[in-house]
Each structure stands twice: as C-alpha cells, then as structure tokens.
Amino acid sequence: MRRVFSSGRRFFARTGDYWLAASLAALAVYFFSGYFTPVRFDRERIEVELHKGRIQVRGLYHYTNSSALPAVLTLQVPFPVDRHHPEPDWYGLCESTAEGHALTSLAPVSRAGQVYFRLLFRPRESKWVRLDYGQRAQITEGRYLLTTARAWRRPIGQAHYILRLAPGLELAASNYAVEPEPWPREGRAFTFSKTHFFPDQDWVFSWAEPPRQTASARRVQP
C-alpha cells in the first residue's frame, strides 16, 4: 500500500510539473508573442502631404490595454506599395504624445519583407505611436491604407484625416468626401473625420500638377 501511495505521489508530482510547464509556456506565448492581446486600437490622426512626385505621411495611433494585467502588442506596418509607388525610402516609428511630439524611438524588425514592432503595456495603460514615412509617386494618385484596421474586428472610435497639397497642386479627387481646412502656410488643405469607423475601402486621392512651361512660353517677349 505504501508503494502505491508513493507511486501516486510521483505520478501527480510529474503531472503537476507538466501542467506547470504547460502553463508557463502558455503565459509566455500570451505575454511575449503579442498575438493574443487585450490591447485595443481606438483612435488615429493621419496627415498626408502631397508634393510633386512625392507623398509624405504622419500617422498618430492610440492603443489602450483594457486588461488589469501587463500586455504585449506586436504590430505589422503595412505600406501602400505597387508598381507606381515603390517602398518608402524612409520611415520612422516612435512613442509620442497626443500632439505628436516624439518620446521613445521604436526599433522595427523586418521579416520576409514586412515591418513589425512591439509595444509593452502596463495594466490599463494607453499609448500613442507615431509613424512617419515618405515615398515617391510615379503617378498623380496616392493611397492611404484604411481597410487594414478591419483586422481589429471593431470600429475605430475616432479618426481624423488631413490632406495637404504643396503650392501649385490641386486636389482632383478623393473617394472620401473632404472639406477645405484653413492652412496657415502656402498650399491647400482638406480634411474629413469619422466616429465608430469600420472602413470598407482605403483612402484614394489624386491631384493635378501645373503643366510644364515650354521654353518659348518662358521666354520674355520684347
């Protein structure tokens, strides 16, 4: 009988070790993978600047840890790349204030041509992340990716978008209705806002550039 009890203790001890190891592995996956997360994406502010042959973007994104536990979030950074819009020639990531002032740089990781970064959250903590990038545009049309937000499976609570055009450029079209916005510098600006926004299409916009002057048109007449 004593041998039976001893065997039973060893069995449950081994079983307990297995359960402990499995629990620790599950916790590691939960906290460090960033794929199972209570963090919510609830606000964004996007500023797009158009220059001749170039698009520059500054995005501010707000994330909130809804849990009473720490959390990790792993995010992919998608860029609107096609045959007319090559990969950005520069980009930067940082934690920031709500106004966009940089706080802490984020080190992105590139895997299989995709860019990822990781955020650590304390319980109930909220953070703003700023993304800046610039890319060449071989046509007078651009795109800002909005449908990627559907992966969160819930609407963005508040979203604000601004489109600024350098002097001499004119807005030709936008698939989202925009309104003119006062802009203290040269050029023009347009904006639109959404609440509880679950986009079903990306933001596509186009612009008109002033025609090039020929040499004869530039020549001063006597």
Write up this protein.
- The structure is a single chain.
- Helix content is 16%, strand content 46%.
- By secondary structure, the chain is α+β, with helices and mostly antiparallel strands.
- It has one domain: Immunoglobulin-like.
- Strands 5-4-8-2-1-10-13-12 form an eight-stranded mixed beta sheet, with no helix packed on it. The chain has a three-stranded antiparallel beta sheet with strand order 3-7-6, covered by helices on one side. Strands 9-14-11 form a three-stranded antiparallel beta sheet, with no helix packed on it.
- The protein is globular and about 60 Å long.
- The N and C termini lie far apart (120 Å).
- Mean pLDDT is 83; it is low at 18-35 and 214-222.
Task: Explain briefly what this protein structure is.
With 222 residues, this protein is an alpha+beta fold. It has helices spanning 2-33, 215-218; strands spanning 39-51, 54-65, 71-77, 90-96, 102-105, 109-111, 114-121, 126-136, 141-144, 156-165, 170-174, 179-180, 188-197, 203-208. The longest helix has 32 residues, at 2-33.
- CATH architect. name: Sandwich
**CATH C-level category:** Mainly Beta
The succession of helices and strands, N to C, reads HEEEEEEEEEEEEEEH
CATH structural fold name: Immunoglobulin-like
- Straight-line N-to-C gap: 120 Å
Number of helices: 2
Q: Return the domain count.
A: 1
**Helix share, percent:** 10-25%
Rg over C-alpha atoms, rounded to the nearest angstrom: 25 Å
Number of strands: 14
Instruction: List segments where confidence is low: pLDDT < 50 over at least 5 consecutive residues.
Output: 18-35, 214-222
